[in-house]
Amino acid sequence: MSVRIDGEKPGGVPSRSGRVRRILRGPRPEAVPTLIGRACAVVGLLDIAAGVFPRFRHSRMHAWAEVLPGSFGPFAAALSLSAGVLLLLLAHGLRRRKRRAWRAAVVLLPAGAAAEFAYRHSLVGVLIALALLTPLLLHRKEFSALPDPRSRWRALTNFVLMSAGSLALGMLIVSVHAHRMVGDPSVADRLTHVVYGLIGFEGPIDYQGNTSWTVAFSLGALGWITAVTTIYLAFRPEHPAARLTEEDEVQLRALLTKHGRRDSLGHFALRRDKAVVFSPSGKAAVTYRVVSGVMLASGDPIGDVEAWPGAIERFMDEAKAHSWTPAVMGCSETGGEVWTRETGLDALELGDEAVVDVADFSLAGRAMRNVRQMVKRIERAGYETRVRRIRDLGDAELERIRNAAEDWRGTDTERGFSMALGRIGDPADGDCLIATAHKQDDEPGEYGDLKAILHFVPWGEDGVSLDLMRRDRSADPGMNELLIVAALQAAPKLAISRVSLNFAMFRSALARGEKIGAGPVLRAWRGLLVFLSRWFQIESLYKFNAKFQPRWEPRFVVYRASSDLARIGFAAMQAEGFVNLAVPMPRFLRRRRAASQRPCAHAVAERDVRAA
Question: Is the pLDDT of residue 601 over 60?
């Protein structure tokens, strides 16, 4: 028995009348921001082409393009170029449903329509502007996204990017008029002319006829846009990124005390550069950071599994309110099932977490021969190890360890997000475990006999999860293996039964791709991962973890659509510290800021009293 929908032919094929009614109804409301954003982008590109290429202004394509908003009035090339750039900037905000972009479009489109009619008496241009304006007004509720977190650094970023783009467009503008140049200026002369033109001065290049005015006003328009957008971003109100407040941290620690044993990544939710949303009952929470428009959570929700749906719903509501792309990095299989069931998102296996059961670990046997020999060789070289809780260290030694970890980092930015705490020795983290390697030298270094550091965070009451590994570059190779073995051997005395090591991305592909019988697709995928390992520690982390014979726990990425994966991947690389778009902070300033962010003893005591 088949059911026929009104307006459709049998078999589910819409009739002609049904298609006509669907067209007359217009696009679905949720699709309007994307359509309007694309339309603005197309118009902007046409306007830029009309402003840059002289031949385009005399082509059949430009006969249609000149009736578009932004191609009117005297100095048409400069106005068309500036309008095109502004429309491209506006298109991104409209596509993301930003309220401010909608307000700007509602103001600019009628102004463009009026100018079209005043200068060109073009009814077609007016109709195009009104055709874009009408859906904006009819579906204004779709443009309700709140502003993104931002700071004054956004103005500097805009200045750098806009200046680079203006230089590139300026060189193009100067070069396309080469046949009207006086003489044969060099590339340096052309670049100088562009720089002078962007700031409103005459450059060293002369043109025949009125071309000098066209080039001058076009370059001036680019410089004007760069200056105006930078000034606007510098003086508009700030919306700082949310941070974990003291009250949020107290509530999260209470949840981890009750439910922290479930997820080895739970303690990393206490990073203070994350924000948090709680379920209505307060029994569960999701921590996240917003990076490049992606609302990036990590690990499973914190707290009672039965309260996870409430926290996840709050997370999705926050993403919708700001038009952020929701994503979760490194959740467990259980977490992935709850996320996909409650939100309709998809999940993709990202890699595996290496977990060593202390009771099963032993250096005996052929499989552990390489690790056993390395550890014995280092011990014979005079190294000794110490494994202690953070609360058992003195202030002087703790400060020395902090400074050593900072200097031994090897990169300008701190790496890690989903499996990194971002601090060492905070008084509130007294349960953290630290393993250190020492060697008495004839000439002690800046940090005495300290040679390597491993830092672990709590995983419930009977587990720890590896946070960071740092070593002196002058120390013998194998420091990390030495300290992991030392931590595993000391674990029973510290009532630790589980140790989570590093996360190995795409481990299953690396492991299966090297086996006999692997297909060509799997082998090609493994070859690509091995190639990428030259820049990212993909294969090396997998092989390092495999030395300790762990059990592998799969971890997943949760995403909304396949088209979002590239954006999520880029945001995750920014969060993890592999891609840094911000201006790096000098090391002495980083130390000063880190010291200022450490809570004083009185604040810690007051917080502990509240938690109790």
Answer: no
